[in-house]
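go over this record:
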Amino acid sequence: MNTIKKSDRRVKYTKMVLRESLLELMNSKAINTITVTELCKKADINRNTFYSHYQSPNELLNSIESAFSQEFINKVEHSLDTNEYNDLMYRLCLYLNKNQDLCKVLISDKENGGGFLKSIYDNFRKRIITKWAQVSSMDSYKIESLYTFISGGSMALIKEWVNSDFQKSPQEISCMIEKPLLLLNKKMIRN
């Protein structure tokens, strides 16, 4: 039993070191130029250890992004159930701010970033559009267009925030995103 705990700790440690090393390398290099050899050297592990967990640096990055996305999605699911869009945006901004090192790789203008936010917005797309359709007399095309417009603007604002090295607070950024959502919500309820 004690050997299993030691083994689990070693695996967790190895994955943590690989994650940190990959993110550090990605601050100066694109993912497709990072080799297993340089990643292992940076992490101070051997190649066999790396290959016992991952097939490539891309697979490691996909694993990191997937875990990050899923953790975020789990944190904000209840906001959609309560129509608290401002809470949703605040939770997103707070979560991103707490994970700045990862965000700088996944969201920044660098060659590596870009798909993370889109996957988050795509994940919530159907639920939010369905909720908006329930409270609005607008046709589905207009509702989907509004979602595209608002999510695109939100993603651009968040990307700018990450690229500015998180100069504004999570509260300030979420309020900037929230204002159009509140106006939209009022308009949809009136229609």
Summary: The chain has two domains: 1-55, 64-190. The radius of gyration is 20 Å.
